[in-house]
Specification:
The protein is α/β, with parallel strands linked by helices. The chain is 33% helix and 29% strand. The chain has seven helices and ten strands. The strands form two sheets. The protein has a six-stranded mixed beta sheet, with helices on both faces. The longest helix is centred in the last third of the chain and has 16 residues. It is globular, with a radius of gyration of 18 Å. The structure holds adenosine-5'-diphosphate and magnesium ion. The site of magnesium ion has 3 residues, from helix 1.
Length: 229
């Protein structure tokens, strides 16, 4: 699903150049669940933004579902983001004045999807929040806000979900609840890439990519939990 070759991103701030991502090469198959780890500033969010077509690389190749991302027009990129990718962020990124339901409907309004209300209701139901549809973000707990954000991410039935430290603002027990939802989505076939600082969260994945100084320094397949011992 994802093929990345020597992907690099350099930010230029005045005269200073920051090499945030340096020649990353890897691929991710459909249906994988990958955790991305590494110290602060190691380039994880930069890589997620590139994979999510929110930003373009300085050099290198990114192919998503066999399409060359660097040759796409802004409209084509917006279309891919809207239809194929769901985003979940650390601080939820919900519209504060809109209800849970309206937040979830948002991606559908851009795409002018018929049955938006029905689909949004189903998405809220899938994250266990059908009874909170009318609540505004400030009337919800942190865990509930993140579930609204996940409902918004899945409402278009994306093939890929990118989650950048989705449990970073949540306590451990609530974080585990969120991971249950991600695990279920992955079992249903969604490809999942998740950035985390926490080893316990990363252990939900089946593969861990470690970054440092903009480089991938380790790429490990985790053992399945062995039920015989
Ligand atoms: P991480 O998510 O692993 O903490 P980032 O990808 O956010 O790392 O950042 C990688 C490096 O790129 C850091 O040195 C950061 O300061 C720099 N950086 C990130 N975004 C920008 C930006 N928009 N402009 C300039 N520098 C940036
Ligand atoms: Mg980051």
């Amino acid at each position: 699903m994802i093929e990345v070759q020597r992907l690099s991103k350099t930010y230029t701030l005045g005269k200073v150049e920051v090499r945030a991502l340096a020649e990353a090469t890897f691929s991710i198959a459909a249906g994988e669940f990958v955790a991305m780890m590494g110290p602060s500033g190691s380039g994880k969010s930069t890589l997620m933004n590139l994979l999510g077509c929110l930003d373009l690389p300085t050099s290198g190749v990114y192919r998503l579902e066999d399409r060359d991302i660097q040759s796409m027009t802004p409209n084509q990129l917006a279309d891919i983001r809207n239809k194929r990718i769901g985003f979940v962020f650390q601080n939820f990124n919900l519209l504060p004045r809109a209800s849970a339901m309206e937040n979830v409907e948002l991606p559908l309004l851009y795409g002018r999807v018929p049955d938006a209300i029905k689909l949004a209701r189903e998405a809220l139901d899938r994250v266990g929040l059908a009874d909170r549809a009318k609540h505004k973000p400030n009337e919800l707990s942190g865990g509930e806000r993140q579930r609204v954000a996940i409902a918004r991410a899945i409402v278009n039935n994306p093939a890929l979900i990118l989650a950048d430290e989705p449990t970073g603002n949540l306590d451990t027990a609530i974080g585990e609840e969120i991971m249950k939802i991600f695990n279920r989505l992955n079992r249903e076939g969604v490809t999942l890439i998740l950035v985390t600082h926490e080893r316990e969260i990363a252990e939900h994945a089946r593969r861990v990519i470690q970054m440092r100084d903009g480089k991938i320094i380790e790429d490990t397949v985790l053992q399945e939990a062995d039920s015989s011992c």
